[in-house]
Amino acid sequence: MAKLLSCVLGPRLYKIYRERDSERAPSSVPGTPTSVSNPPSSSWDTYYQPRALEKHADSILALASVFWSISYYSSPFAFFYLYRKGYLSLSKVVPFSHYAGTLLLLLAGVACLRGIGRWTNPQYRQFISILEATHRNQSAENKRQLANYNFDFRSWPVDFHWEEPSSRKESRGGPSRRGVALLRPEPLHRGTADTFLSRVKKLPCQITSYLVAHTLGRRMLYPGSVYLLQKALMPVLLQGQARLVEECNGRRAKLLACDGNEIDTMFVDRRGTAEPQGQKLVICCEGNAGFYEVGCVSTPLEAGYSVLGWNHPGFAGSTGVPFPQNEANAMDVVVQFAIHRLGFQPQDIIVYAWSIGGFTATWAAMCYPDISAVVLDASFDDLVPLALKVMPDSWRALVTRTVRQHLNLNNAEQLCRYQGPVLLIRRTKDEIITTTVPEDIMSNRGNDLLLKLLQFRYPRVMAEEGLRVVRQWLEASSQLEEASIYSRWEVEEDWCVSVLRSYQAEHGPDFPWSVGEDMKAEGRQQLALFLARKHLHNFEATHCTPLPAQHFQMPWRL
Prior knowledge:
Elements: H1 2-9, E1 13-16, H2 52-85, H3 90-119, H4 122-136, H5 140-146, E2 149-151, E3 160-161, H6 166-170, H7 196-221, H8 227-247, E4 251-256, E5 262-268, E6 281-285, H9 298-302, E7 306-310, H10 324-340, E8 349-354, H11 358-367, E9 373-377, H12 383-390, H13 396-406, H14 411-415, E10 422-427, H15 445-457, H16 464-474, H17 479-488, H18 493-507, H19 521-535, E11 536-539
Parallel strand pairs: 3-4, 6-7, 6-8, 8-9, 9-10, 10-11
Antiparallel strand pairs: 1-2, 4-5, 5-7
Helix pairs in contact: 1-3, 2-3, 4-5, 7-13, 10-11, 12-13, 16-19
Catalytic activity: Hydrolyzes glycerol monoesters of long-chain fatty acids
Membrane topology: Multi-pass membrane protein
EC number: 3.1.1.23
């Protein structure tokens, strides 16, 4: 009877992976997933086959879930319509509640029938036994057996807790349950007295901004968190997960962040292979509709690196909602997991981000200054200009206030707090992070990210003359135009390197540098062009084109 109840309440089982551990060599790093030199070929025919009763009951419950999601999103309009028609009176609501109660009882009966169908299936009974055993005792053997199943991630046991590192328990400066530290925006009206009356006057605007951010704004900014989209992408996500597990020997793990959100991660270990890049770990930060199953993790994987992918809060197996605070909390526990559980030193970690993932990547660079490098692909400096682009001009004040208070993705400000190597990849046909049209390459906000970084690190070089010549170089939309502008200014790269190395040897590596202070305008222009070319590479593609492995390069180091 207890097993039948477990089958009724148990998670949905999607796929059974074939046994892989017998084909692997032991890992040299204790506590980490093992690696293999020759991963087995993928088997796409191992999807779990439910019995007829479970299959039909699952279809009914899935349909009910979709209808509930549609009802949830349309509920404000439905309530307004019912109110106008007079259907919200007590005489109308009571019969409706009876219908709703009857429907819930029917759905509960369907769930019980599904449980009976699972109970008659030996595959599911074996799975639920392993899952229950793992929850009771998370031994290495139980986890190994559980890794052979792909099921509803809500039932997956937690593998790593944000307080697990001993340094977190002893430190008072670490994150609290309220979340990690973020850079706060300056007040819109500086110098004004913050009196009780002024707060009351601001209250309607603050309430409006809150409602916009938590309804329309968040879903526009992170469409991947919308349940209906995830439901439509489920077959693709399952196939991508199977590829990572069966072909790349990936290991899935659930991390518990300081805000209580559970973060879905996938780790591919290349340290036991002949690839020299395998000693480096690339943490991948996906875009606003990206998932590690089908996202940018494929680029460093093809390049031979060890890879740790994770999903935004509210995406696929991760819980929560993708607001900036939750995003930073998730990134914090991912980095801690990489250091304290996977065994990578910060100097061996590279953070790679695509599009909106630049926010968590720059946050990690700011808070973990010892990481090796940061690579930002198709990212931007600040969210406000891009938000104003898609909203009516009459909403300018509301959009600015909403972004600054609730959705403040200040990538450039965070990146300037990082002292290490940075590479920016600009898409020359980007249609997402341009503020006018894709053909207007100067409206690409990646340009502003580069300029703000260089102006912070090399303020004397990026004075009026240097800024002007870099802007000319950024106008180039092809490699031929770029090379033409570069050669026109006759940049002597050996001289630039010697000047920068001499300054570093004398003054140290910490930015900002005052190099170029006593230099002629021609010298500053050469340095500015040299530095711009080292920090930004062009890729002739649109925003969503996958980055080829040959374009994934480590940033320039002096």
